[in-house]
């Protein structure tokens, strides 16, 4: 099964620390052709981390959080 691609603005919670909310703020491909994303911690606002997109898409590491829309 193909994984959904990682996109700007998507939000995730870490499986090991579900209190932190992370948002994709930057995407790039490294020199070896591996796509990466920088995540900004929306809970603390000071922490950012870079992971390969495969790590972010791994349900053992992160769970996607759907954006809520105002009605």
Automatic annotation (TrEMBL):
Full protein name: WYL domain-containing protein
């Amino acid at each position: 099964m193909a994984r959904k691609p990682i996109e700007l603005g998507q939000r995730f919670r870490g499986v090991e620390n579900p209190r932190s909310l992370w948002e994709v703020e930057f995407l790039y491909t490294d020199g070896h052709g591996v796509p990466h994303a920088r995540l900004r911690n929306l809970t603390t606002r000071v922490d950012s981390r870079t992971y390969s997109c495969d790590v972010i898409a791994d349900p053992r590491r992160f769970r996607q959080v759907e954006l809520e829309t105002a009605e």
